[in-house]
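In the laboratory, one determines a bound structure by crystallizing the protein with its ligand and collecting diffraction data. In a computational setting the workflow is compressed into a single prediction: the sequence and the ligand go in, and a structural description comes out. We illustrate the idea with pyridoxal-5'-phosphate.
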Amino acid sequence: MSIQENYNNIKDQLPATVQLVAVSKTHPISAIQEVYELGQKVFGENKVQELTEKYPLLPKDIEWHLIGHLQTNKVKYIAEFIDTIQSVDSEKLLNEINKEAAKYNRKINVLLQIKIAEEETKFGFEIEEARNLFQKFVNGEFSNVEITGLMGMATFTEDENQVRKEFKILKDLFDDLNKTKPLQTLSMGMSDDFPIAIECGANSVRVGSAIFGRRDYSQS
Ligand SMILES: *Cc1c(COP(=O)(O)O)cnc(C)c1O
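The predicted complex, in structure-token form:
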């Protein structure tokens, strides 16, 4: 199937209330441009270097999301233009984003990445850590960031019940924090599990290979 067919196919499956983040990592400018011309304005990349190479070559009204693990020393390279950092997984990183955003006199949207998968390798906060950090934000810390929601990745497994269980943990936390201060974005679901994520309450999905095709090399 062509990129256009893939894209339309995904769009057809998404309720109007669910945001699509088109994950373009490893794919060339030409492919991103093609999807952009189909009307897609929100794209996700997982590596700072790749993003900073692509950014100047693409239309300026693209809303860029960083979705991969971010090292504090690299925040400065994207602070001027990044719309949302979905992969905030430590207070140290949040502090750094806050500091760099202040230099540009702007606010950067962030999602707290929560560890919901069983796998040891996935980055993210434990539930209690996230609660504590969110409370600091509600109390007025981090004035140059806006915590707009939560992000999580389920375990890579065929076991649908396991995936549902993990998404539900994130949805429950989202609903709970939302009582303290309204949140906009619950980002969960990728090419293989986004329909389940939406059933479990996701209002933003990160879809790469189902739009752009398989990536040539494996991604962390
Ligand atoms: C690569 C990636 C995706 C997209 O994965 P696909 O399976 O290609 O849809 C989503 N979220 C994160 C954090 C990723 O790194």
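The mean pLDDT is 96. Keep in mind that any predicted model is a hypothesis to be tested, not a measurement.
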